[in-house]
Amino acid sequence: MADVVLDQISKSYDNQNTIIQDVSLTVKDREFLVLVGPSGCGKSTLLRMIAGLESITNGTLSIAGRVVNETAPKDRDIAMVFQNYALYPHMSVYENMAFGLKMRKTAKTEIETKVQEAARILDLAHLLERKPKQLSGGQRQRVALGRAIVRNPKVFLMDEPLSNLDAKLRVQMRTEIASLHQRLKATTIYVTHDQVEAMTMGDRVVILNKGKIQQVDTPLQVYQNPVNMFVAGFVGQMNFLAGILEPDGLRLGDNMLMRLPQVLQNKANQLNGRGMVLGIRPEYWLAPEDPQEGQTFEVCIQRIEMLGREQLLYFPLSGQTVVARWPSDLPVKESESLSVKLDTSKILLFDAATEDRII
Ligand SMILES: Nc1ncnc2c1ncn2[C@@H]1O[C@H](COP(=O)(O)OP(=O)(O)O)[C@@H](O)[C@H]1O
Ligand SMILES: [Mg+2]
User: Fold this and answer.
1) Is 308 a residue whose pLDDT tops 90?
2) Is 255 a residue whose pLDDT tops 90?
3) Residue with the nearest Cα to atom 27 of ligand 1?
4) Is 242 found in the same domain as 223?
5) Looking at residue 263, which CATH number applies to its domain?
6) What SS3 state is found at 357?
């Protein structure tokens, strides 16, 4: 069992700059967990603490049931893959992959077996004699993965391993890493700032902001049930409209009343007169003919982005620009008015002061 347990982990520099605050998290054995958040939120710091490359200021870190706070990186049974590959330029692909094992005085025949096996899995067998500069970006990234695989670690730590690749290769490597995990079934903690990577790769996703965990859940749950405005806006697109709660709905600017589902209204009523923020995903907007119940608005289309499969419509509502997803075959023109229906059963409500979701 190689679960990784973080218990109230904190990190500060010089006793003042708190970079990571009270992070508690259990990464299950064999799980693929994605740590996602904006640049500078502390993802690398947290991963480096797990790897042992950074000291832990407070809290307890356990790997496979053993407290490892003071354990040297090489004795933690982990392997880390970095964004910049960090391959040795003067060594061949084979030597790069073999290096870590050699340093551990692994027998030559065993090194040979392991490197060949990793090369086969990663489709590098025909490139073993090449130097890193003779490889493409994707191939280099595969060598970096290979170097981690040969160690046969209990836990893989990956820090934005695909960030240096172009968009197409990134998508391809995303699939490769996912299927690699299927085969190796090692506990993996994968760091990214890219929400698409997080949503498509993770069994579960941890959303980090300013060194604090915001939410830990499956990709679908964080999308459908974000706990606060940060998560709602970070995972996918969301329109936010501020308003004041009234007994029969939310009063938005322009004297517009937005009806709320009864349960939400009841719940919000208990917070009497508080400022509220409405969360509307672009797909909550429907054509007026749609049988789904909702509230219809007459809007003036400002801008259209045709994406082929769908189009994005931008229009002002209550003093803000709102975006709606729309079927591309429905005729719409810029500067013309359009009836749009909001599926009010789906809207999310947030407390304007705390930015927490009201459920
Ligand atoms: N040695 C250090 N001393 C002080 N602050 C640091 C040090 N290393 C990183 N930081 C700060 O920690 C924060 C988190 O950095 P990092 O973990 O690299 O974020 P991320 O990987 O999410 O982009 C940043 O604000 C960064 O400036
Ligand atoms: Mg980082």
Assistant:
1) yes
2) no
3) 40
4) no
5) 2.40.50.140
6) strand
